[in-house]
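Person: I have long wanted to understand how a fold can be written as tokens. Underneath my words sits a plain record pairing an amino acid chain with its backbone structure tokens. Those tokens are not coordinates but codes from a learned vocabulary of shapes. I should like you to check that the lines agree and flag anything odd. The protein I mean follows directly.
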Amino acid sequence: MIDQTSPEAIENKRTHWHSRRGMLELDVLLVPFAQEAFPGLERDDKDRYLALLDREDPDLFTWFMEHKIPEDPELAKIVAMVQEHARQR
């Protein structure tokens, strides 16, 4: 059993909570990614995802609906990972 008070478990819980945006279109992408993929990511990808969560909802919506690609290649990479995760579900 995983120690729910470990730093990793706490980070996973916080990330799950911050992935809930209140916009259905974002929630259906971000919440499953946070639950299913985030715990297994490499540290660099976790940091990219956390940086993504700091962005405003309109930006996220634009990127995930494929209206635009983030100018920052690091954000573009994690957006693509979230989109791929959603396609595989």
